[in-house]
Amino acid sequence: LNKEYEAALEKPAVVPPLIMNYQPLAHGPNLYWMTRGEADQERIVSHTNAVRDVARTSEMPLAKKILGNRAINLEAYEQAAAGETVTHEFGHTVLSTRDSRVKARVGSGNEQSVIEELKAVTGSMHLIDRALKQGNLPPKIDPEVQLIAKIGTTASYFVSKSDVVGSSGERYYYSGVAVYDRLFSKGLLNPNGDGTYKLGDTNQCIEAIGEIGHEIMEMYASDSTTPEAIKGFIENLRVRKNTPEMQAFIAALKK
Predict the structure, then answer these.
(1) Mind listing the pLDDT tens digit for each residue in 29-43?
(2) DSSP H or E run through 177
(3) What is the share, in percent, of the chain residues with pLDDT greater than 70?
(4) Strands, sheet with 37-39, edge to edge from the N-terminal-most edge strand
C-alpha cells in the first residue's frame, strides 16, 4: 500500500517494526485506557495481555450479544483480537499525516483526528481484503473470526466512548458509525427482531468495511482533498448516527 501511494508523499514511507509486548503492570491512566496498541515512526507495539483482557471482558461478549450468542472459540477470538490491534496500527502508518503533503491535504484538529482513526479502523479490513483476494492471507488467520473481532471492537465504541464533539472518544464512536452504516446500507447486517443481528457473507462484509479504508486512503492521496472536505465527510457521519437502523442498533447494544 505504501508503495502504491508513494507519489502522494513528500518522503517514501517506512513501515516500522512490530513489537508484541506483554505489559505485566498498568498504572496511572492505563488503568482506565487499557492501551492495546500504539504506533509511531520507530515502532508498532501490541500490548498482548491488554488485548486479551479487553477481548474477554468487553469485546467478545458484545459480539455474542449482537450475533445471538453465536459460538465463538475464545482462543481463536483472542488471536483475532491481536491481529485486529496490529492491522489497526499498521493502518495509521499508511499515508501518515506526519508526511507534510498528506498533512496539507487533511489538515489538523478534531475532524482530522476522527478520520485518521477511521482510516486505521477500516484500513485494517482493507489489508485483510487485499490479502484474501491476492491469496496470501496467512493460514493462521481465519477471516470469519477476524470479522467477528472487528464487530466486537467497533461495537465497544458505542458502549465505552463518547459521541460528544471534541471529546477523546469521538474518533472511535464515529468510526463505529461508519462501519455499521456501511454494513446496513449494503444489506450485510439485518435485525432478527429480538435485539440480535444476522451478519452477511464474511468476505463481502470484510470487503464492505475495507472499502471505507480504501476511500479514505484515496482522499489522503488526492491533491484535490482539502481540510474542508474532511470536515464535510465527518459532518455526514454525525448525521448518519441518527438513522433509525443506527439508533436501534446502539439501543440494542446498551440494553
Answers:
(1) 566 566 777 777 777
(2) helix 170-185
(3) 95
(4) 18-21, 44-47, 37-39
